[in-house]
User: What shape does this take?
Amino acid sequence: MTLPGRFNANFYHSLWQDCDAIYMQHQASLLALQDDHQLNVNLLLLAIWLDSHHQLLASSDWQQLQQSLLEWEQRLLLPYRRLRRLSKAALEQAEYQQMLDVELMLEHKSQAKILAALKSMILDEVNPAKPDSNFSRYLALFNLNSQDYCELIQ
Assistant: This one.
């Protein structure tokens, strides 16, 4: 099943606007998963968002999303993030904020890559008889248990 108008500009804006709200609420936990286990925050947010809309991606789709982002992020985003973190002590606040702004732009590119990859994937309605979630499927790629992160799945 697909969401109505799933890939129009309104969907894109709504998806990431909702994800921004989730991020603001759970920033510390999301960043800890990113830093401690190398999870992708944008994919975590997508998983939480899809779960809240009762839509489910196959485990293989989560693996495909992770892999498609990993190549691009290893070449550009992750080295830039390391540079920004190393530079923090040596930069004025305004300069550091400029680096954060560039990193945010790179994150938005990641989001666009996610949306492009989603176009070829099928979303299924969540089956109440078989409790499963996108969040647990994504965490499973890293051998993590979603029950250890209940604060993210309310």
